[in-house]
Write a structure and sequence with these properties.
By secondary structure, the chain is an alpha/beta fold. Helices cover about 35% and strands about 25% of the residues. Helix 3 crosses helix 4, helix 3 runs parallel beside helix 5 and helix 4 crosses helix 5. The longest helix has 16 residues.
Length: about 250
């Protein structure tokens, strides 16, 4: 684990006209940390990921990765430095095999060639339990397998920081539990994880820290169950608590 911060957001603000999706957000994450992000629809969660990955540029503030300012770098450059993300709707290459999808990530994201790229792709497919489907076309996969491939493609870039966007959405409880185990293994390798998720139960047992985002602001930050119990966070979730079965 790195002694210095892996990721830093310093007063990051993003506006679309009069709409503020990130209101002077500040965050520090260290290698191996696991942070969960929850909040209502429209809270700014996906925009936050876009600001970290480079899909959006802030109006003000700074993004730093391993102590280096990356605010002006595009997504490809940030990926090569070690920032990888998944998307709510999987973006696999449907005409390619599962293995080829991850191999592309190893080539383009991690900059590997030949045996090194092949070894990384094979290792990632083992880690995400997709090795038996390696030669399947991506178009043949079930929802769970597509979610795992989206995760595998991100891991194929060789990240130091992994941004997970709603990877548990639409899955059954056993499928969510299996996915959590995979993420636990990823985190054990020292990779920092920030997980945006509506399925709150997926986060509670995994993350060290839970942040609630609403209206572009952090309104709760700390130990997961303590954050979920705060009045401000309960209000955001319309009065339903985690213990009452809330999954959003």
């Amino acid at each position: 684990m790195s002694s210095g911060p892996l990721l830093e957001l310093a007063s990051v603000t993003k506006r679309f006209g009069s709409i503020v999706v990130a209101d002077s957000l500040s965050l520090i994450l260290r290698g191996g940390d696991a942070v969960g992000i929850v909040g209502p629809n429209g809270a700014g969660k996906t925009s936050l990921f876009a600001l970290i990955s480079g899909d959006l540029s802030p109006n003000s503030g700074e993004v730093r990765f391993e102590g280096r300012p990356v605010t002006r770098l595009d997504p490809a450059a940030r990926c090569r430095l070690g920032i990888a993300r998944t998307y709510q709707v999987p973006r696999s290459f449907e005409h390619m095999t599962v293995f080829e999808n991850v191999l592309v990530a190893a080539h383009r994201g991690a900059g590997l060639r030949g045996g090194e790229a092949t070894d990384l792709a094979a290792s990632v497919l083992e880690e995400t339990h997709l090795h038996e489907e390696a030669n399947w076309p991506a178009s043949r996969l079930s929802l769970l397998q597509r979610k795992r491939l989206e995760l595998a493609r991100a891991l194929g870039t060789g990240p130091r920081l992994l941004l997970l966007d709603e990877v548990a959405a639409g899955l059954t409880e056993p499928e969510v539990a299996g996915l959590v185990q995979v993420v636990e293994g990823i985190r054990a390798r020292g990779i920092g994880v920030i997980w945006v998720e509506h399925v709150v139960r997926a986060l509670v047992g995994l993350v060290d820290r839970l942040i609630c985002l609403a209206g572009g602001r952090f309104i709760g930050d700390g130990e997961p169950l303590a954050v979920l119990a705060t009045p401000a966070v309960k209000e955001v979730f319309l009065g339903t608590s985690y213990g009452e079965g809330n999954s959003s």
